Amino acid sequence: MSGGSQPYGMVQDAALAVDGDKIAWVGPRSALPAEYSDWSVEDFGDRLITPALIDAHTHVVFGGNRAVEFEMRLNGASYEEIARAGGGILSTVKATRAASEDAPLNDALTRVDALLAEGVACIEVKSGYGLDVETELKMLRVARRIGQARPVRVKTSFLGAHAVPPEYAERADDYIRDVCIPTLRRAHEEGLVDAVDGFCEGIAFNTAQIAEVFDVAKELNLPVKLHAEQLSNLGGAALAASYGALSADHIEYLDEDGVSAMAQAGTVGVLLPGAFYTLRETQVPPVDLLRQYGVPIALATDCNPGSSPLTSLLLTMNMACTLFRLTPEEALAGVTCHAAQALGLEDTGLLAAGQRADLAVWDVSHPAELSYRIGFNPLHKRIFGGV
After folding, report:
1. Torsion angle (degrees, nearest 10) of CA 380, 114, 332, 375
2. Nearest to 290, CA basis, from 272, 305, 269, 276
3. What is the pLDDT of residue 354?
């Protein structure tokens, strides 16, 4: 993934010079400039080196788990039925509100460690399981602490518009104005927010309610992203694109108008095959339309306790190829350069001079192996900021 003209941007018999936490030079070893010839050398033999992986959509901070709801679904209950009965997101809200700050951190680190073991160096972490001021702030503080506890880059997204809490049942507008927006302002004041997200769906919030939140994000100069068109088409992706969104995520029910709007705005489509698989969905994202319009496609685990209890980005790549018919090259771009774009990052995701030296070294002979294998981790070494 060097951005070259060969498939995958591959460079055979390559050399890569690292200066501090940055890549200084990359190219064929035969062309290595003389100024680097006396630097210390680590020979990785015939192994493959890629950018370290990026998980651009996760909910790794939460309390409890939802194994019982998993069982309910297998006994015939739908995602919407579980949500409307007070399960789903709201059951995790109850557990997260009751937890101390340390318990969700310790649990989250077990999930983060699984991702790091597969070569991940950057993760996005959302709030959204508090739905009150203090718990939303607690979740964002925990997300920040992940980056202090582990060698990983963390980007946070405020997801106060994730669900309507029980105390605001049938009063979604009041919740947005009384809780969500004031919490966003406070989180921004505390430096806890890198982006603003929402869930635009019949069981969550409509486009007008999301627009209220996005207007405040714009006022605060925060980028936006959106859970859109997962279960139906409410026009969420087009709304997000109208705000110049970094990404629209899930997008199974996205139509051509939405794809066109995303293309014009430069909004990345983030596909989440773990949720598609777990919920046994049948509506496949419009991959051909995304290709036709040149919309970058990213992939992420969507790690969460309900619809995607997935902590393997390698398995995510395989799922995207098998379920959505992405090519292995698209899958690798989806967890490197396009994932970086979905987070608004310009200094990672490619092997190029000036990029962060976040690298993954693999015991494989061809990049397609990363998507081809199931339940197999060929990581040899993860390099984070040159270390």
Report:
1. 80
2. 269
3. 96
The three-class DSSP label of residue 356 is strand
Provide the whole-model pTM: 0.94
Contacts of 266 (CB under 8 A, 6+ apart): 244
What is the pLDDT averaged over residues 193-216? 97
| pLDDT(17) > 50 | yes
d(CA 126, CA 135): 12
Q: Which of 125, 115, 154, 121 is nearest to 310 (CA)?
A: 115
Residue position matching structure tokens 């635009």: 200
CA distance 273 to 280: 10
**Which residue from 53, 56, 302, 322 is spatially nearest to 195, judged by alpha carbons?**
56
Tell me what the pLDDT averaged over the chain comes to.
Answer: 95
Alpha helices in the chain (DSSP H): 67-74, 79-84, 89-98, 102-116, 133-149, 172-175, 181-189, 207-219, 236-242, 256-265, 273-278, 287-293, 313-324, 328-334, 337-342, 369-372
Q: Which tens digit of pLDDT belongs to each residue from 69-120?
A: 888 878 898 877 877 776 777 889 999 999 988 999 999 999 999 999 999 9
| CA 335/CA 297 separation, integer angstroms | 9
- Cα–Cα distance list, 106 to 116, 145, 221, 310 (Å): 15, 10, 32, 17
Is the pLDDT at 141 greater than 90, yes or no?
Answer: yes
Query: How many Å apart are CA 62 and CA 216, to the nearest integer?
Result: 25
d(CA 124, CA 364): 27
pLDDT band at residue 5 under the 50/70/90 scheme: low
Quote the tokens at residue 167. 């105390």
pLDDT at 3 over 80: no
